[in-house]
Amino acid sequence: MTKPTVVIAVCVLCASSCVGARAPAPGRYLAAWSGDADRHQSDFLAIVDIDSSSPGYGTVVASVPAAAVSTEPHHMEYAYTPGRSLFASGWSGHRMFRFDVSHPLAPRLLGEVRAPPGFNYAHSFARLPDGDVLATMQGDDSSDDGPGGLVRFHDDGMVVASASAAVPGVKGARLRPYSLIALPAENRVISASATMDLEAWNPHAAAVEHAMMEGDIPNTAQLWELTPFRLLATVALDAPQVKSDSFPACAKVMLTCPPGLLPMEPRLLADGRTAMVSTELCGLFRLSGLDSGTFRADYVYRFEGVGCSVPLRIGHYWLEAVIGTSRVVVLDIADPMHPVEVSRVQFAPDENVHWISADADGRRIAVTHVGTAEQRIWLLRFNPATGAIAMDSSFHDPGTRVPGVSFKREHWPHGETGPAIPHGVVFLP
Fold first, then answer.
1. pTM, to two decimals
2. Sheet of 317-322, strand order
């Protein structure tokens, strides 16, 4: 990350903090992409006041329905780019949406985004410096059959280009781009392949689960050329085996279970040319080499438990949300080949932390979880100089002392629609 242009790209595309020449303004609001819990009312985008000097601190101050029911709000962009729309995925509903959050107290739905034929189930997004958006597509048809691919959209949702993740001789079910990072200065994109489960109410959920149980489990990262848009290389993530009972599909099809299965979330490192990616089985790999003949993955670390989810890279620290142990773990990756844990935050056992995003200065981390516990959004305090992390106990519902803002409520600014499930959250200026 030696050039100023690369620094800007890394900030926006990796949801990482860039501590540099100009201190960025902290966020005043959180945008939370949320599903109606009983699936009777529209899913919606909620805006939460996170300005500790505001009389509305810790309250939901605005919301806008997506005009769609049962979409399973899932990932959206990892960071908001001022002056642009905000892309969001309604995963099991096989939908994409765009929101205008330029005025956080008056968010607007801009409409749906349509993928081109042969690309379905958008999962994650990466914003490019020119304003275009890259999206990972998990499937190639409405049944969520693989392989998937990548699609490039203009900010208005129009398709620019697309490319398939297909590799000769590799089952399509194993090639499902889950998340990605862009390296525009290098004309490259890196994606990781993991199968995303569909909600039980989706008619194709059983088929996807069956493919996993039969051993069609992705374990690859892929290197792409950004312009022209095409796949350059695919590499398997290999690592020593762990107990098969840590992941049900492994128990059925193999005696042991490789931590390289289901790589999810790559993040760019400070040099702008190498990356790291975590897997659902909590392996951590370094990705290097930006040409078809040099692209490789090296196994460097394994977190306790399973269910490693959304990470952040802030300076020389790697922050990892781990569902299976209900914690956010911080590693020092100054030497990427030898990470060392420096701190952690432990949540309650049923608070299965999944999504984390960083404020522009890297000092606040927003957290949501998956599972049956009461749905909340938490804020953590992070020290980019030392790697220390802790719960921000000042952020809570008015009138309570329980950390976090609850989404178990009847009233929202858009109406009396009942409890909701927040997933993707980003900081807004």
1. 0.91
2. 308-314, 317-322, 327-332, 340-346
